[in-house]
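In this supplementary section we document a worked example of the pipeline. Step one takes a protein sequence of length 99 as its only input; no multiple sequence alignment statistics are reported here. Step two produces a three-dimensional model, which step three serialises into structure tokens for compact storage. The input and output of this example are shown verbatim.
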Amino acid sequence: MRAPSGGPTTTEQKLIRGQPNMGMITVRFACGHQGTVSATTDTPPACPMCSERRVQYVKARPPRFVGACTGPYAVTQALEALPVNLAPQGSLALKPPQE
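The serialised model returned by step three reads:
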């Protein structure tokens, strides 16, 4: 339900301000039914009424990006360097290109 002014609802305002939504995402399926799914689940959502898997609309909080990035939802900060071992079994032997 929209706010009387036509602006965002209270829930949408909380999402815009970045308040967590308890890890749940509202999903509207192609069949017209609605459901909620966990934001951390790896399984594809299915309609609880008819098992439809095609999603028509998703209402979720905006993504948050942290690090070397810019944009409306970005938090730019210097990240610590991490050591990376590209050759854990020893040095790499380079082979000449075969013609």
